[in-house]
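Throughout our pipeline, every protein is held as a single compact record rather than as scattered files. Such a record has a labelled line for the sequence and another for the backbone structure tokens. This encoding replaces a full spatial description with a residue-level series of whole-number codes. For reference, a complete record is included directly beneath this paragraph.
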Amino acid sequence: MSLLSVSDLAAGYGPLEVLHGFDLEVNQGEIVVILGANGAGKTTTMRAISGMIPRRGRIEFDGQDISSSSPDSIVRLGIAQVPQGRGTFADLTVEDNMLAGAYVRRDEVQADVERWFDVFPRLRERRSQRAGSLSGGEQQMLAIARALMSRPRLLLCDEPSLGLAPLITQELFGVLKKLNAEEGLSILLVEQNANLALKVAHRVYLLDTGNVVSSGSAAELAADDSIRKAYLGS
């Protein structure tokens, strides 16, 4: 069942069009990965879906047209984004960052804070620290936990491994995979680490200069020699 359906998506910045009109779909319970080189339009795609930049085309979430919806209303409908570069509130504490992520909710907020502290115990140890004082890996954990505080049905993750050590990256991807498998959380993931992304993905879209040039199951794209040479280093 389709949860997110994107048709003829075009977007950009001022007069510069980055996305030139393509279709994309995330089904309920899927992890879908967008691969592509730098400048392909991956981050622009995420920003367009979450309403952060002007866009054209049609975007439906759970059958509802959100093409003209504001970022705030999109979060309330059940889409949360972990932005590239983490985007934590550096001067707020870890706990206050997480509470900020629950601004669309009223009930059981503190219980969810403790829940995500259980998932990311290092955040519990640093709950009173300023977010800006955390390591890069801890800030990424906080960015994910803050997004999950809105109880999304679809999580948009933009380059979660960027600048992180391999062990931290493996830990974060393990959490995302577990949330998908055990709770059915749908995830749209942009990732430069193609080998790692293909291990967790159900389906993949390959983006090049603002257009989808290939799509299919993770197994199909991993077996494609031309894609392996271009994106997987083999």
Summary: The mean pLDDT is 93. DSSP finds ten helices and ten strands in the chain. Residues 76 and 104 are 6 Å apart (CA to CA). Strands lie at 2-13, 16-27, 31-35, 55-61, 64-65, 79-82, 154-158, 186-190, 203-208, 211-217.
